[in-house]
Amino acid sequence: MIQSEPQIKMIELKNVSIVYPGKKEPFVALHPTTLSFAKGQFTVLLGRSGAGKSSLLRSINFLNKPSGGGVSVDSIGEITSGSRLRELRRCCGMIFQQHQLLPRSTVLRNVLNGRLSYHSFFRSICPLPVKERLLALECLDRVGLFEKALNRADQLSGGEQQRVGIARALAQQSCIMLADEPVASLDPATSVTLLRLLKRICSEDGITAVVSLHQVDLARSFADRIIGLALGRVIFDGTPDQLDDTALGRIYGESHVADMRSTAPNEAGYESKWPVFADPSPTFSQT
Ligand SMILES: Nc1ncnc2c1ncn2[C@@H]1O[C@H](COP(=O)(O)OP(=O)(O)OP(=O)(O)O)[C@@H](O)[C@H]1O
Ligand SMILES: [Mg+2]
């Protein structure tokens, strides 16, 4: 378990639970969970399909409204009113597995959509000021897509579209980044590039990131902290070094861990479906 208490608790979940209405009876996807996320920390959520990763992630910005408990965010306080929820949504960027871009709009327009919460409805249907467009271009430059600003979003590759998603969240000037399986539809090399970029940007801007992944090696390479979920409960909370066989067995099941080790082991002694990338260094140059 992580020993040192974070200095600034950016996000605090107190007894947050998510219960979905079921056909016969309600289904508890997340049992009451108390967690805090330090400012600037890059946390990866691991767990089998259905473990409750998305439910936990989406409870942070109330995309899944907690059925119980409370969420507090530094500088906003506990989310107890509509106005605080709007503030939370403004400071919370979200990256989805399927990019969630407007396919027929330009890349620039998609990034500008990250600015909409700063403007009234009537302002936002008019062209946004030059200052806003310059900010969006700067965000595109940071993700290496400046030249594609005027391309249609659906003309980009999956990895590029995901980078537009990051640029959109950046344009939002968010202090929290939530990413639900951001690399699920990408090939292994592009996944690494994307996570490097995300990690670098979060680290440069002091953004608190919570990212769900299915790839243990990527979690080990990029996370400051790993939270493992099973059956709607947090069953591991520690550093990548602390994620040993026992922890993996509890998260994925003993037989799965045995399967993982049955081929050539990597440095850490585990079988790897993916190459291990120890150095999350920047990929895109910033000029
Ligand atoms: N809207 C919903 N209504 C009812 N049950 C739901 C709903 N959304 C999720 N669930 C259930 O809650 C549990 C947790 O789902 P969740 O999406 O949080 O899992 P996950 O860990 O993100 O899984 P995956 O890795 O497949 O994305 C699952 O059993 C799922 O079937
Ligand atoms: Mg999910």
Q: What structural keywords apply?
A:
single chain, 287 residues, alpha/beta, Rossmann fold, six-stranded mixed beta sheet, four-stranded antiparallel beta sheet, 10 helices, binds adenosine-5'-triphosphate, binds magnesium ion
Shape: globular
Run of helices and strands: EEEHEEHEHHHHEHEHEEHH
Attached small molecules: adenosine-5'-triphosphate, magnesium ion
**Estimated share of beta-strand residues:** 15-25%
Question: Average pLDDT across residues?
Answer: 86
End-to-end distance:
40 Å
Q: What characterizes the major β-sheet? A: 6 strands, mixed
CATH fold-level name of the largest domain: Rossmann fold
Helix content bin: 25-40%
What is the CATH homology-level superfamily of the largest domain? P-loop containing nucleotide triphosphate hydrolases
Q: Could you say which structural class the secondary elements and strand pairing correspond to?
A: alpha/beta
Cα Rg: 19 Å
